[in-house]
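User: Design a sequence. Structure:
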């Protein structure tokens, strides 16, 4: 079974997806971490085509994220990598390579996969699709707390990235047909996880 959880940054996808995977005994797939790994590699190797990097990179996901054997768990969360990830994610060649890897990974077993295009592109046949949203200010507040930075700056960067993610020609961020939309503004994680688990069990 596949549970697809999509939505914008700061909507609570990672925490909700992790919690749901733990509650159901499924494996958690953080597809954003794969885009972040490509972005980090592209920043370090600016002469190479991001799409070629995406096809060649060995990304291991889990408690720690490894890129070609190197632990990049913290490095891929740096603000410049977030910015670069949003840019490489609009490259159709990068998307194609990563979607292929994600489908391969999920071809067997039970998964809770989180991203922007899981329900629309990667796994359109997922048994459950959830689209998480939250008010922009609340999303910025959560991200700022996570990053230990200023909320105003996060809000401005977030608006830029949201705009780019929603309007890109290839796989724009939008709810999949049949997705259940959940607004997490003012809800705590446990409540949202309980709702998603209940939907999955049904
Ligand atoms: O969820 P995140 O912040 O780790 O994602 C990093 C970037 O990758 C973000 O700009 C959106 C993009 N992304 C995407 O386009 N498709 C996905 N399935 C996951 C992430």
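Assistant: Done.
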């Amino acid at each position: 079974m596949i549970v697809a959880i999509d939505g914008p940054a700061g909507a609570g996808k990672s925490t909700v997806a992790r919690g749901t995977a733990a509650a159901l005994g499924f494996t958690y797939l953080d597809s954003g971490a794969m885009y972040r790994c490509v972005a980090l590699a592209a920043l370090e190797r600016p002469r190479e085509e991001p799409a070629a990097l995406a096809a060649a990179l060995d990304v291991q996901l889990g408690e720690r994220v490894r890129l070609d054997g190197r632990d990049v768990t913290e490095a891929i969360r740096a603000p410049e990598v977030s910015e670069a990830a949003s840019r490489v994610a609009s490259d159709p060649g990068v998307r194609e390579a990563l979607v292929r890897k994600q489908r391969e990974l999920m071809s067997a077993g039970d998964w809770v996969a989180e991203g922007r295009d899981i329900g629309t592109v990667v796994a359109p046949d997922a048994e459950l699709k959830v689209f998480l949203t939250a008010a922009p200010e609340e999303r910025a507040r959560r991200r700022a707390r996570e990053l230990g930075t200023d909320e105003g700056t996060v809000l401005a960067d977030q608006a830029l990235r949201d705009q780019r993610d929603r309007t890109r020609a290839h796989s724009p961020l939008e709810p999949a047909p049949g997705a259940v939309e959940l607004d997490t503004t003012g809800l705590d994680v446990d409540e949202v996880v309980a709702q998603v688990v209940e939907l999955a069990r049904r």
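The mean pLDDT is 94. The domain at 2-201 is CATH 3.40.50.300 (Rossmann fold).
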